[in-house]
Write a structure and sequence with these properties.
single chain
Amino acid sequence: MIFNMRTNIKYSLFGILSLLIFWQALIVIGTSINDNYVYTQITPLKSIDALWQLLFEPKFYEHIFSSFYRIFCALFLALIIGIPIGLIYSSNEKIKMIFYLPFQILRMISPLSWMPIAVLIYDSWDGAIIFLIVMAAVWPIIFNLTQGMAKIDIGWVYVAKSFKANLFSQLRYAIIPAIAQDVITGLRLALGVSWIIIVPAEYLGVTSGLGYAINDARDTLDYSKLAALIIAIGLIGFAIDSLLQSLNNKFKWN
């Protein structure tokens, strides 16, 4: 196990080094084609240095907290909406046939397309942003829950009933273990979509958040900081996704 861990770290470091070399090569090519000031500011070394400086800025953590607050509020609402809808949707084939096409059409609408409507409905930008994230996050939850419910063998429920298990016990020992992995996968996908949507959603109206910080760095021509923020968004997103992946592995159940 230790050997595999060392091997994984070795390959990961090689991948990061390859990415940095490719990044620097693009800067060199871009500079040779067009001697733009921006190219000199977004080199790997300057971006990493700017990222290091960000770690000591309290405002940076305030932006992270603001983005997290909006995402977690949206995911909480998406779970409250998505789980009941997913359970109802997966409970009956006729319901599936009726709502399959409407759900697929709604799922394929870009969440940012709802921006004008969200601005008209909500008094605050926070409410509008949370609404946009919910519109993106609810569908992975619904469809992964439906997929999990389809895996449940009715025989498991019959066995539980034969032992005179009540509804709570059936949920705890038969149904929830069977769908837990799919629900967590849906949450993981929902979080990934939310992390993508939050940045452009925070470009307008708000005065905090990682999207706002990127927009502010662009307006102040601090391009190395802009690149550092982009790296930070990727690292934070990777950390959250890895946490959910480990949780998903914990709930593997046969």
